[in-house]
Amino acid sequence: MTRKQLLRKVKEEQKVIAREIKQLKASRKQGKRNGRQLWNIESDIWRRKFTYRHTHIAYCEFRGRSRHEIECPREDNLPVQGKIDAIKNEWTEQIEENVCVSAAGSN
Predict the structure, then answer these.
(1) CA distance 12 to 1
(2) Which of 47, 60, 48 is nearest to 87 (CA)?
(3) What is the pTM of this model?
């Protein structure tokens, strides 16, 4: 996968997560829960927001933005740097795999 393809794929995944968060927030009302408990809905929202935030930070840094350009969080709301690094490492590996496969195929 090329860098451009990867970034396009990540952006599409971000849009899907954002839609899911919006739908889950709308399902908080008693009449729209479909038998689910509120704590369960809130937990799903929190997980998706966590994933979205860290993927967004990794995406922006991967494209060359500084952390200060992306967000300025409060001291008690800092992102998990290990999660961001893991995401960026996974993307780098995917791109390097494509480069290795392309180089092996051209020989």
Answers:
(1) 15
(2) 60
(3) 0.86
Q: How far apart are CA 64 and CA 84, in angstroms?
A: 14
Q: Measuring CA to CA, which residue among 40, 54, 38, 47 is closest to residue 20?
A: 47
- Contact indicator for 10, 55 with CB cutoff of 8 Å: yes
Taking 70 as the threshold, does the pLDDT of residue 107 lie above it? Answer: no
Terminal-residue alpha carbon distance, the chain:
19
Length of the chain: 107
pLDDT in tens, 22-55: 999 999 998 899 889 999 999 999 999 999 999 9
Determine the Cα–Cα distance for residues 77 and 75; give it in Å rounded to an integer.
Answer: 6
Q: Of 92, 84, 45, give the one whose Cα is nearest residue 67.
A: 84
The domain locations on the chain are 3-105
